[in-house]
Amino acid sequence: ISGYTLTVQASDNGNPPRLNTTTVNIDVSDVNDNPPVFSKGNYSVIIQENKPIGFSVLQLVVTDKDSSHNGPPFLFTILSGNEENTFQINQQGALTTTAALNRKVRDHYFLHVKVADNGKPPLSSLTYIDIRVIEESIYSPAILPLEIFITAFGEEYSGGVIGKIHATDQDVYDTLTYSLDPKMESLFSVSSTGGKLIAHKRLDVGQYLLNVTVTDGKFTTAADITVHIRQITQDLLNHSIAIRFANLAPEEFIGDYWRNFQRALRNILGVRRNDIQIVSLQPSDPPSNLDVLLNIEKSGSSQHPMKILLHKINSSVPDLEEILGVRIIDVFHKLCAGLDCPLKFCEEKVTVDENIMSTHSTARLSFVTPRHHRTAVCLC
Predict the structure, then answer these.
(1) pLDDT in tens, 97-152
(2) How far is CA 145 from CA 209, 224, 276, in A?
(3) Sign of CA dihedral 80, 81, 85, 87
(4) Which has the closest alpha carbon to 95: 47, 36, 49?
(5) What GO molecular function terms would the record report (predicted)?
(6) Is 234-378 assigned to CATH 3.40.50.12780?
(7) Within 10 A of 65 (CB to CB), how many other CB atoms are there?
(8) Cross-strand pairs, 17
(9) Which CATH number is 37-134's, of 2.60.40.10, 2.30.110.10, 3.30.70.260, 2.60.40.60?
(10) What is the C-alpha to C-alpha distance for residues 372 and 120, in angstroms, rounded to an integer?
């Protein structure tokens, strides 16, 4: 408690007694009784040789429970392990190099570091920093091209996370940094450390080509990212086909089955592969199963007769299951089984919810689709 306010009353012994009150303010000042504390008792750092002088090795974080005048500014001192003056620490706790590191000359440093606070008398704490010097990068990072398909109900896509760029490096301790062609930064961005790709604002339907680079600090590699934004209409939804797969996650379907499934359907239906498009992907009930909503177009964007498509797909389910190695539970067009309604009067209503967009991404493919709902009504 940093302060007290007391009300004191004095009264005499008269009859009747006379009295008066006054206020006493008591401020409790801070005594420097807490030393500054490092965020860790000891630190381990791995650094590649031949980094430029002034390279940032580590940022030390220190806290002090005392009030501000007994805390910062802190004084950092390297007590031992820095006999060649290879490192320095500024008063913000940043450890940097003052000389080039060569692992053949010395590959290990063990620094004993003290921090003192600004109190009178000052209090201090100690920590140890174990620094290992390894060889500099010898491998370029590898980055995979990514193709992204976005389903938009309308003429624009409102934006959000649309995929993740995958890059690897055979140098075990390399840190990869991602960047995007500045020309596209008004429309897209990429997180520098994680490779997460984000669409910024309302994007028109169409195709976008992005150039993404990844660097390990020495080598830089680039890859092309293609973003397709496709418009769906209510008429397209009305002619869509839903297929339910057993025990399949969306990412598993995209990464392991989608291209083969698309190719197999192309052969069965006699259409081009790109005429078979995913409208929506979502876990079904139970969630271990997967509902895939498809649109199948003719050249010229007209629709195939639904009865013919459904008949061909349903009659080919055993072949599809054998090709894919996954079980197909059902192929839906009309949800009429539970209705007391003649089939010709049963109408299915398919809607999508643009407020619930899901991104399912693998190393090479990403689909951003709205949640869909299918209901049946009797018109008779």
Answers:
(1) 999 999 999 999 999 999 999 998 999 999 999 999 999 889 999 999 999 999 99
(2) 11, 5, 22
(3) negative
(4) 47
(5) calcium ion binding
(6) no
(7) 12
(8) none
(9) 2.60.40.60
(10) 68
Alpha carbon of 292 to those of 37, 271, 285: distances in Å? 55, 19, 13
Taking alpha carbons only, the member of 311, 315, 317, 310 closest to residue 294 is 310
Q: Do domains 37-134 and 234-378 have the same CATH topology?
A: no
Cα–Cα distance, 192 to 190 (Å, whole number): 6
**pLDDT at residue 337 in the model:** 59
Look up residue 141 and give its two tokens.
């990072």
pTM assigned to the model:
0.74
Per-residue pLDDT, averaged over 319-335, amounts to 85
| Residue 343 CA neighbour count, 13 Å, CB half | 4
> If phi over 0 gives left and psi between -120 and 50 gives alpha, with beta otherwise, what is residue 341?
beta
Stronger pLDDT, 376 or 36, i.e. the higher one: 36
Per-residue pLDDT of 58-67, as tens digits, reads: 999 999 999 8
Domain 142-231 sits in which CATH superfamily? Cadherins (2.60.40.60)
Residue 302 scores a pLDDT above 90: no
284 within 8 A of 290, measured Cβ to Cβ: yes
